[in-house]
Amino acid sequence: MTLRLFIPADAGALAVGAEEVATALRAAGARRNVAVDIVRTGSRGLYWLEPMVEAETPVGRMAYGPVAPGDAESLLGSLVADGQHRLGHGLTEEIPWLKRQTRLTFARCGVVDPRSLEDYRAHGGGKGVERALALGAEATIEEVVQSGLRGRGGAGFPTGIKWRTVAQTQAPQKYIVCNADEGDSGTFADRMIMEGDPFVLIEGMAIAGIAVGATKGYIYIRSEYPHAAATMEAAISAARRGGFIGKRVAGSSFAFDLEVRLGAGAYVCGEETSLLDSLEGKRGLVRAKPPLPAHKGLFGRPTVINNVLSFASVPIIMDKGAAFYRDFGMGKSRGTMPIQLAGNIKYGGLFETAFGITLGELVDDVGGGTRSGRPVRAVQVGGPLGAYFPRALFDTPFDYEAFAAREGLIGHGGIVVFDDTVDMAKQAHFAMEFCAVESCGKCTPCRVGSTRGMEVIDHIIRGENRAANMTLLQDLCHTLKFGSLCALGGFTPYPVMSALTHFPEDFGAPPRLQAAE
Amino acid sequence: MQQSRSHRDRAPWDRDVALRLVREHLDREGPLLPILHALQEEFGYIDTAAEPLIAEALNITRAEVHGVITFYHDFRREPAGRHVLKLCRAEACQSAGGDPLAARAEARLGLKMGATAPDGSVTLEPVYCLGLCATAPSAMLDGRVVGRLDVSSLDALLAETQR
């Protein structure tokens, strides 16, 4: 018999020893004369179980984890016998943490071989582009509009409207650009897609190309993601060889080709206009809008620029129809959101679910509280530019508008959990410091305001002229919020002001009454 | 790819090799970042002597090339140590105990973040997110990722940098 195993080659799994586990299982198989076929997949996103090993059985894949290299011998012994092992969790799909999710965008992630176009097609991939070709450009855009899909990078702008603008702009050349500069701490969904199901991103971008009349696409990946870039490159080559992209997309008369470009460690390049300048080979300076990238984007041409998750959600929308996708969610937040549970959390990982789940459910029920075992004191939602929420606001539903109403944002869907040892004045200081380090320098509120912000918070921490400095800090945040060119300066006030508002005692002020808003 | 090989294997600066690398990318749209990555991959840093070469090949000013090189955190103006240890200093790793680990690394190596050891053994650098936030705190040694970092696994990495 041949034992067929699935072990992630996802960076998050490799970081906790997946490679060593694969090597040990191969060696254990050789010693026992058991043929072991190991498929390297992406991660299922159950990082608390990584390194996770799955074994193929007649009833489905069985999960084991977290597996250490030292467990290989006993695990292999169990697998050739009855499959029972102390690290066993039964059928992967039945693990409650995974079963209660709604995996639309991440349906194949962790399941398929990310470098195999055949495997992608065998698991339902490729149907979206086929339907787009059958419907034609206009109907495809209408489908994306009707699905209610909003930009998953953080801004939440309706994806279909952006596409329509580009489609209606005449130009000899148009571009599709994927923003894979996922720099927000606490987020890793883009990385997981690129390492676990890169063809879904390729398909989403090809559909965009067909819809707006663009023949060339770029994926701008941050340099901190070497594994994602390598898998993406391999998948693009396979897609070209298999006729999935290239001169005739999926056998049609449409041409579309893709290229990976690496960033160079500038956080601000996650801002779309700065990213475009960077792609053009310039300093990553933010552009003033208008003109919109949809009118004058890359090299001055009409450009669709979307986040990885936005593109990756398009194939299933095209395959199953707008109504299918739109039926998930709440209010103006339609479909599902891949939420990333990170930091000091017991059950961290990727949790894709319909909009509407509350922050408390995510942190306490799904996440299981802190890994340190201490009480949860604050969670930062939406990356370094997102607000810190106290427990009192844990009833906030995961929805663009609900978070905005409470002076926060969902951003790219990352949630970082902090226990009661956190010093919120220090976190506020870090937010200003990060803005100062990463500011592109083009606009004064961001460039100068962030450094002034650090100084003022230092004064507050040292107890110098506290009341006056608190007022000054609020005034400064107001200037940053309304005077900055982009979200870096514009949103840095969110973590700062939320820390000050919800945790004043850390700034030497009397504590706030623990009442919900 | 960034740091796909150990820093000790880098070739010394060579004008002809640099010119060849520059020319390899000239047909691409927006070739400057790919050129800079290629030079850094080859030599481990971007020599000042590369600036006029690139400027002439792309028909832009040397100031523009210099401006781009200095804008991005990745591009080095001088060679790094034989090993490069990056410690994630962003919020998810802060929440999981990254700060004391970073302080420990600085103390044990006698280096501040961003500095290279005088003996050229190691460069210690902060990184703002490796995307390993569910297995924080995280680190990267010469391109190899490490998660759930604790005192003992950090000490093992520090020992590796001295080999």
Describe the structure.
The complex is a heterodimer of chains A (517) and B (163). Chain A is an alpha/beta fold. Helices cover 41% and strands 16% of the residues of chain A. Chain A has 21 helices and 16 strands. Chain A has a 5-stranded mixed sheet with strand order 2-1-3-4-5. Chain A has a 5-stranded mixed sheet with strand order 13-12-16-14-15. The longest helix of chain A has 18 residues, at 444-461. Chain A is globular. Chain B has a 4-stranded mixed sheet with strand order 2-1-3-4, with helices on one face. The chains are: A alpha/beta (517), B alpha+beta (163). Chains A and B meet through α1, α11, β12, β16 and α17 of A and α2, α4 and α5 of B.
- What's the CATH architecture of the largest domain in chain B? 3-Layer(aba) Sandwich
As for the CATH topology of the largest domain in chain B, it is: Glutaredoxin
Look at the helices and sheets of chain B and give the structural class: alpha+beta
At CATH level 3, the topology of the largest domain in chain A is Rossmann fold
Order of neighbouring strands in the sheet with most strands of chain A = 2-1-3-4-5
Low-pLDDT runs of 5+ residues of chain A are: none
Order of helices and strands of chain B, N to C?
HHHHEHHEEEH
